[in-house]
Specification:
The complex is a heterodimer. By secondary structure, chain A is α+β, with helices and mostly antiparallel strands. Helices cover 49% and strands 15% of the residues of chain A. By secondary structure, chain B is an alpha+beta fold. The chains are: A alpha+beta, B alpha+beta.
Amino acid sequence: MKKKFLSGFLSIILGLHIILCPAFTFASAPPEIIPNSNNSFVFPSLKDGVSTLSRMSVPQLNSYISSVAQRDMAVAASTSSSNDTAATIIDVRLALYAAGLIAQKVGFPCAGRILEHSALNIDYTESNGAIARAIQNSPSYEAWKSTSNDSITFEIASDGLDLFLALHWVSVNVTGSPSSSRIRIIDTFNFDPKFFKQPSIINAINDIGWLSQKVYLLSEIEIQIDIVS
Amino acid sequence: MKQRSKSVPHLILSLALLPVVLLSACAGAGDWSFSGLPGDYEVVRFSAHVIRLLERTSDIGGTTVVDSFVSELWWNDDYILAKRKPEDTAPESSVSYYIVEVATKEVFGPYTKEEFDARVPELDIPFSHEGWISVRDLPQDSS
């Protein structure tokens, strides 16, 4: 069941790269990033994969995702060379990490960062970073500043899809004086088996995210964002 | 061949869903709120382990009335009753009880079970313990 799920998931990842970057070649790659063999990358560990993928361009990242998926499909269809192996959980997690890197470059900087961290099972913490700036520029945050609420909800219509999908409902903790305060926003990245009152596509996102958690492709992580005056 | 023909519809479905899914598999998707309570009160899930009862003060959020972990609720038009544990995995013996009066927005508690059982009839609340609803079972068609 897990193997079938991984293969299906690789189909999904391949679909992503096709839609996002239909035209790419290795000819555009920086010379210092060289595929391992047969024009594919097989990393022995998450650490090795992160080190290499973090230096890649979007076309190279898409090529990596494609290589993982194609290699696994070839193994499944018994058309691969004898050296190829089926995708492991590390391979798919790195593919999700690569998807997070791509997302940051194609208009989803907040969601991409969180996806990247979840794929690596690393809590996300920042102070006055990219997500903090996105929050400060959002209408919901601007409206919140004149309230005494300890929770904010970010919505697609007002704050945009990227911020909504990165955070949605968050707790807010304010410390210090109004002129020198720290605003700490806390959230947890995870999915719940029961979910309602959202558009059906969001339910689909939640369902796939829940399944990803079940096979440890994505992990529940804590998010802490400080806005420091 | 049979394997390939099965994989094509799967891939097409994946292509249809996936750009949004993978780019957006993030915290927001798992959060929900249940607003089928009287007044401006909502139950909000921030994560699997953090569920609070909030008073919604505007479109963009609210203030905590009963902190996490709110495990069960009962309500009518006049009152909201809530059971709270220190955390979702805490035993039933750690539960404290709260009573929210909708009209005045007064919050009574935390009570022990004995204190709660004494207070409920004093406020003339038509409640029995069989009426508790788990937050996990909140009705989907309510809003």
